[in-house]
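Lecture 7 notes: from sequence to structure.

We start with a single chain of 159 residues. Read the sequence below before looking at the structure.
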Amino acid sequence: MKRILMISMLGVVAFGLACSGKKRAQKGYIKAIAPELEKAIAQQSPFEADVEIIRKGKVYDVRVDFKGLVKENPRWKKASHEERLAWFARVCAEVVGLTAGGAEEAGFMDFENLIIGYAGQVWSVPMEYAGYISSHAISRSKSDKRLEKELMEEMERVE
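Now the structure, written as tokens:
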């Protein structure tokens, strides 16, 4: 419920910014959205992350780098490296996919990729796929484990 309220709030902010001029809205959205995404990731998981919005011509990428754990988690201690990456990537895709989708629907920003930095590795997934993950997470039509498995198959390692 908190997640839906937070995302609704972000949608209202995005709409307000869109109404005040596209270019100004983009700059304002970029400044406002990164800290909000960091907070949303911390609220939805035990993760702390750095978020950066990167402009690539007329489109944007969102880069999320793993910083650590906000709180101890027994699942994290038992998980393998791949399971940890999948869990972190799913949380990022859920939060970023929904937020980026809202900005695209408002018509003032286009997002291309979600870039995930974890344990010295960099991974990329198309933003459309992040939106797919977030829609299934919200509707609970697929389990978290299933979404993590699908996401790992879709992600590509970069660098």
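Helices lie at 2-19, 22-44, 74-78, 81-106, 127-139, 144-154. Keep this in mind for problem set 3.
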